[in-house]
Amino acid sequence: MITEKGREAGVLCHISSLPGKYGIGSFGKEAYRFAKLLKKCGVKIWQVLPLVQTGYGDSPYSSVSCSSGNPYFIDLEQLAQDGLLTKEELLAAQHEPGAVSYGSLYNERFVTLRKAFARFNFDSAKFRAFVKSGVAEDYALFMTAKRVYGENFLYWDDSLKYRDPDALEKLRTDFHEEYLYWNFLQYTFRKQWNALKSYCNSLGIRIVGDMPLYVAADSADVWAHPELFKLDRELRPTKVAGVPPDYFSETGQLWGNPIYDWEAHEKENYAWWTKRLEDALATYDIVRIDHFRGIDRYYEIPAFAETAVKGEWQKGPGEKLFANIKAEGRIIAEDLGIIDEGVTALRDKLGFPGMKVLLFAFDGNENNDFLPKNIGENSVCYTGTHDNDTVAGYVGTLATEEFLLFRSRVAQVLQEEGIFVRLGEKPQEFSQAFCRLALASKARLAVLPMQDILGLGNEARMNYPGMSEGNWQFRMQKLPSGSAMRKLRHWIKTNRR
Hints:
Layout: E1 8-12, H1 29-41, E2 45-47, H2 76-81, H3 87-92, H4 102-119, H5 125-133, H6 137-149, H7 158-161, H8 165-174, H9 176-202, E3 206-211, H10 220-224, E4 239-243, E5 253-258, H11 262-267, H12 271-283, E6 286-289, H13 293-296, E7 297-302, E8 312-315, E9 331-333, H14 341-350, E10 354-357, E11 379-382, H15 391-396, H16 400-416, H17 427-440, E12 445-449, H18 450-453, H19 483-495
Parallel strand pairs: 1-2, 1-12, 2-3, 3-6, 6-9, 10-11, 11-12
Antiparallel strand pairs: 4-5, 4-7, 7-8
């Protein structure tokens, strides 16, 4: 729960950004060491991005299944300890230090995991119980069919495309080993993740996880439940998600996710959504709902459109979506972007804390909601998010006059808040200032991206919205230590009382 007593500190660092030998962060020893480091610094919250298996574009916000776990995060060394991989295979799976190379991982990692599966006792009682539970059923069938018949389910044979029971059973039987392989990946993912989460909880650290509002068009979710989306008879989306034109984009953003048929959801008493939320709350201690505004009103765009200009706002399900969920203190509303009174009223009625991002605060408007003096207690304060540049990166892009004005505004707020930080010419000095301001705010929870704690520039930026390549690649070369973490410990001790 987000505590109502005191003010807590959190760190945003996705699993993929952890260091390690195997090309991407994992649930291995570095994750446990990172948790111990957070504990030592007084951090009570570790926030991660969605842990789902990524699809095209490598985005954790676009997955083959919203209930899946990313096999890339499976700790290979644990598999070796379990006798499923050899030392030689571990050595072959190692990568040079550096940014995540998703292309290499895609070509190599599943080969390594298949070797582990070949040695796995899939007749064990625990695994058989997992398969029988159906937790990964739609995912396993979907991935099996992709492997056998091609990438997009729209082009599968009609009997499989429309999920004829006989066709599903034939798929499960004829390609049983493939079906078991995908179950194995999810079984192993959940086993390792649950162990890491339990360890974090034992240290007094709670996990905040992200849940995207929408799902991908080519996903097990749409394939298994086409009746819950606005699709035509061929199961192609008729309406897709996005946001309208604004100051940042003349044509808006065309995301392409299929739009929910909320009337269909209401007829089944939001059963699919209730289960999805329950699964997320079982996976994490606290869930941040991405694009919360779409629950109040959402922007839908004709599927054939080339831009988001011709979209329309439609009424969303509102508070009815949460009627069957008991999650007091366990949900954060990502209420950024185009926010109106309806979104604010819904958030407040549900009692969810919203987000305040300091990078948006210094436009010269004294009434700016993101200024520290305007941040209320029922908020989560961030220096920035995964969709923004780092603080140092942003400062480094400012022209001279812009920089001087920005520095003046930040210095004034620092003075008002009683925080002494020298602001010279170095962008890293602004990272420190923003971290201090977030921690000193009235928000019950302040969350600092790891990049800002370390004072990194835009080379460490996580995502450029609208760009399909080059994102989600940031990874630490080693776990942070030394002065940066001593400063963090001091800041938390001083400002989060």
